[in-house]
Specification:
Layout (H helix, E strand, L loop, with lengths): L6 H5 L3 H14 L6 H14 L3 E5 L2 H14 L8 E5 L4 H9 L3 E5 L13 H4 L4 E7 L8 H10 L3 E5 L20 E5 L13 E5 L2 H10 L4 E3 L2 E2 L10 H10 L3 H18 L5 E2 L15 E5 L2 H13 L27 H9 E4 L7 H12 L2
Amino acid sequence: MVPFLDLKRINEPYKNELDRAAVDVVESGWYIRGRYGEQFERAFAQYCGVKFAVGVGNGLDALTLMLRASIELGRLHEGDEILVPANTYIATVLAVSAVGLKPVLVEPAENSYNMDPKCLKDACGARTRAILVVHLYGRLCAMDEICEFANSHDLLLFEDCAQAHGARLSDGRSAGTFGSAAAFSFYPTKNLGALGDAGMVLTNDADVANIVRALGNYGSEQKYVNRFKGVNSRLDEMQAALLLAKLPHLDEWNERRREIAVRYCNEIKNSKVLLPELPSVPSEHVYHVFVIRLKSENSRNEMQAYLKKRGIETLIHYPIPPHLQEAYANEFNGEYPIAESMAKTILSIPMSPVLTDDEVSEVIGAINEF
């Protein structure tokens, strides 16, 4: 059996480090907003190359509070339109809706699965005020083109980096450094995963950082004095300590993911399967998941059933695009044929830093024999 993702196997080699971190937190007697939270914020900000990092409860909160901060600063207003990918996980869209902004969907590029810069102009309207990119599956978006478009149209730029921990351009610029602010998730399945829920907002703007921190602490900058109508969303000491222990291993894990991706792209030889494009700069992709496409929905479903019989676990990221979800019924008027086609034909195959060479060969062999 080849598991899609085995979190126990990923964490097992670092059990002693994680145990020590957990015991330290328990023995400290300080479990919220303590030294481990501060240390991890500094470490992750330094790793990504930004000035400020604010730990929050989860990735959705990171997105929501990031946008809320811009509203509190008067940079966004209720009803403003935000361009988001049409094929993203629904959390991106939920965050936009939650703060009274209007999501406008942008089709993905066929070769990258990311927001297509060529579609931005048609999606842009009189009320458009920002772009929220998602580095889907771990691949950086076409940031030079998107940044140029945002600048030329006077739009704010935000990043959803929930799947792109450690992705970098050739010049060293990292996911989370291109816009006004960026949101990260440390859900256990992420490339850098906690052992529970956790999230973070990155920014070079001190005002954004301070407001995000206050919003996540009941809107309070000073105890019992509430400047904003905030929420309870704070990175706890246990998750911060565990993430701090795991962070030094992230680049090694990402490099192993790239090795597996190269093998998949070079060794899968099946005319029914469409493989993703390998980026010219390898560091631009950290392969949170590895997604193949089949030529039809039936073929995709048959491939998934076949691989299951062969003992190979697969998933679909994502089977229903946001505009077809019941939660957003009748909210989007446009047509999104590329996003819909992808949802019907994509299949995520096993990808993790602890997959063995034999397991990778087993996946490749099974797909080639389909």
